[in-house]
Amino acid sequence: MYTAFYGLHEKPFSLSPNPRYLFFAQGHREALAHLRYGIEEGEGFIAVTGEVGTGKSTLCRALIESLGPATEVAFLFNPPRSATELLHAIAMEFGLQPAGHQRHALNDQLNRFLLERRQQGKRVLLIIDEAQNLDVHVLEEIRLLSNLETASSKLIQIILLGQPELDRKLDSTELRQLRQRISVRWFLTPLSREETEAYVVHRLEVAAGGPRPIFDPSALRELHKRSGGVPRRVNLLADRALLAGYGADARVLDASFIRRAAAEVDGIAAGPPRPWTNWRDRFERAPRVAVATALFLVAGFVGNEVAHTQWMASWLGNAAAPTVVIGPVSSRPDPAIELPALILDVEDVEGEAGSDGNAADEDLGDLRGIKSVGEGPVGSRGERLRNTLLPGSFLGRLLDHQSADLARHLATNAILDSFGFTTSNEAPYDDTAAIEHLEGWGLSVLRVGDATLDGLAALNHPVLLRLRTEQGGERTIALRGLGEETASLYGVTEGGMLDVSLTEIDHLWDGEAMIVWATLEAIPQDLSLGHEGEPVVWLQQALGELGLYSGQASGRFDAPTMRSVRILQSDAFIEPSGSVDAKTQMVLFSKLPRYTVPRLREEGGAG
After folding, report:
1. 568 and 473 in a common domain
2. What is the CATH number of the domain that holds 261?
3. Is 273 contained in some domain?
4. For residue range 252-272, what is the model confidence (pLDDT) as tens digits?
5. What is the distance between the alpha carbons of residues 12 and 10, in angstroms, rounded to a whole number?
6. Which of 95, 102, 573, 592 could make a disulfide contact with 559, Cβ separation 3.0–4.6 Å?
7. Is the pLDDT assigned to residue 303 strictly greater than 70?
8. pLDDT tens, 523-534?
9. Closest CA to 515 of 595, 428, 453, 573
10. In terms of domains, do 548 and 510 share one?
11. CA geometry: angle at 502 spanning 370 and 460, to 5°?
12. Is residue 129 within 8 Å of residue 63, measured between CB atoms?
């Protein structure tokens, strides 16, 4: 959304890991040096702790990439709850078929594997993330793993990653034997003020392809103060500040934008709103629309919402049919952060209005006069409009006025059109018929009952959603675009696309979704450890293109392949099972630019 405004090719402060944005502060460089030293020296245990978001996982990813093929790595993302489950998970991570569920059998199997790798001249490394969640008896089992050794060296090296709670556990009396075996122990500190500033400058340069000084010195100081130097929080605040700056048409951001972003993220009152920097220019370019907007907002707080809808429609009926931005009332105090919810062209209001200039339909100010939708909020003279808000769930009322069969028909056709297929004149009578119709074109449909908008954004494919109406009915509509604050829907009106605020969708949606995608390669629906053949070759090549797999495309689904799949899944906020299911295939097809698939948002963009 704001990327083009600031001259950026993609969002610079995304929370998803991206190796192109890798930035190592002094503490990270020292930690990496200690990790490498510990591994090269054959130390049995290494512990790295730090607050949430300080970069522990990024550090380990950099470590793994630097080790080379002589080191075989197993990475446990979600620590198990029992010692037996731990051994079972480790065996799976190393590509073994676990020898039952008896601890002694699993230990024997793991010992044989480690001896084989030692004979092959390979080093074996186990990394356990979120280790602070491990029970004391599971940590004790991990200590016993270090007893697997030859006369001269350890057969396995173990890195524990965790939050400060892990340090407190390791310092307890119960784990003194484990603590004594940890030869390298490092606490990852947040960034200093200078490092925070360098971090922000670095990410902006990568996103812009060159220097892009968007934050002034006061903003950078405030950003460090509000984030505490924690990279994840720096990303969150900087992203929200850029969005606020875009809403205010501010090319350079000062400390007030950071304070406002922090207030929004933390849910704290932010004080009086900051005025737009070029309000005078906006007012001179579009005086009539600006005055109408201001009067309408004031009137909305003291009168009946329907009457004001009619007043606005009739007043604008005498103008050159400007676009009206409609959305829910927001509790956030800063209009510079607000974005439009529905973007509608009011074309036939005057024709439908009564002779006294008031709209004839007293329910919705004759929304049946809405015929088309523009690409963005554009006023009668081409200026962009924001913050013209109507109270209540306007989307829900629009859906009440839409036939369920027509909504489903328009939504299904919008999905077919996005894949380049011919639309149909036949309306599906229910969702099952709609799915069968889509599958008749060779498409696949994955039904999900507990989806989230973030999850749909990660899968990045068109979706059929079931939304409630204001009166409690249900309508099936198509989600075709997803930005940071708005989504593009089809099926709400006959006019085409509507841009709707995410808040409005959350209000009307229970999480039921039908994700539509195309199987573009001959891949099994469950490609997992042990599979062999051309589908695995394709998978390894695809992971290599994304920088997640550095080995040869052997065609054998082995432990390194499974690790790479888990990294992809974790980045996409789906369960890191290590198996390539339908969701994982969707993510691969959407991320690989060689596939022409309809996406909810382009990689690095806002949608």
Report:
1. no
2. 1.10.8
3. no
4. 999 999 998 988 887 643 433
5. 6
6. 95
7. no
8. 887 888 888 899
9. 453
10. no
11. 105
12. no
